[in-house]
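Section: Multi-chain targets

For targets with more than one molecule, the full set of components is provided together so that the structure can be written out for the assembly as a whole rather than chain by chain. Components appear in the order listed by the source. The example entry contains two components.
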Amino acid sequence: MHRRGVGAGAIAKKKLAEAKYKERGTVLAEDQIAQMSKQLETFKTHLEEFASKHKQEIRKNSQFRVQFQEMCATIGVDPLASGKGFWSEMLGVGDFYYELGVQIIEVCLALKHRNGGLITLDELHHRVLKGRGKFAQDVSQDDLVRAIKKLKAMGNGFGMIPVGGSYLVQSVPAELNMDHTVVLQLAEKKGYVTVSEIRDSLKWERERASHVLDHLLKEGLAWLDSQAVGEPQYWLPALFSELLSRDVTPEEANQMTP
Amino acid sequence: MSFEWPWQYNFPPFFTLQPNADTRQKQLAAWCSLVLSYCRHQKLFTLDVLEAQESPVFNNKKIERKLSVEAIQVVFEELRKKGNLEWLDKNKSRCLIMWRRPEEWGKIIYQWVSKNGMVNSVFTLYELSNGDETEKEEFHGLEDWMLLRSLQALQTDGKAEIITMDDGKGVKFF
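Its structure, encoded as tokens over all components, is:
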């Protein structure tokens, strides 16, 4: 019986067909690449036009920045990923956040001796805006959060702790674990917290609560008030609302240990 | 002009001596600053420890917090170490508060003297601290003991000489 497809001849034929497909594939790929190259060129030109048109907007308008960042996130681009390149050079996005980062560090350093290196995002925002003056560019809390994330990635000891719908910004590398964070969140409401409150709200043992509070005292984030009615209260300068708009006086500056 | 209290004054823990050493250091520095500013504002030159406890400085009625006697003593000891306080008795119940040191006062007095072209004139201590001419000056109302020390500082510098007169002391400026 004579079977089709099997035998030396069939194999050779198959091989030839494969070779032809391969060649065709190469030709197809080359075509595609040529097409893609062209598209990329066009894309690059459009990006450059975009950049020059919107560079001003990016520097001046915080809402635009949010939307721009969201757009970048959608297409998988991080404009703050590297210092060089299109995003920072042409659009100046990197510069804007870099400068903001420096400002944030300055504010936190100036207040560190008061609050131990913990500050609410609100207060930080308030002081950054103040420092920029009337005619400076608008800065939103979203901008601050992004700049702080960048600082954190660069290993500057920065961190953000979610409390009461916003954040506490940590600017010193104090070790704060989940227990500490949760107590900070509890303290946010009144600016202070007690052992009883911790036990009632979090259902912890007395020792665990004391341990956390001692740590906060040790890190300089909390002060002890032993004249409170009932039991001692642990107050955090970072959450003391009266401090929000109080500038550092020359006297206070003189008290700061170098 | 009313006295401006620092932020710590309304912060309840400020009136508790802090257990943490670093925080306590900051606290004491702030207390020293507050005591000196307050005394300067009120032109107080001496303090009595027992009376001090009831003074607004150490007793904030609004937030119902006051510094204990022990804590006040700690603050005073800090001030003494810095050269701003001197005990008047062994029991440490009264002290002199020098929110300005004698050398600083001496300088201010001498500036006034030379600015008014009164070098080489003689003054009685009373004229300097209570005279009409000095009414607008900061050193007006300066207590005798401080005035004397300030002039002694100037004397050491060769800028003045304290002379004894019939009814008290006087000073000549060079």
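Strands of chain A lie at 118-120, 159-163, 166-170, 192-193, 223-225, 233-235.
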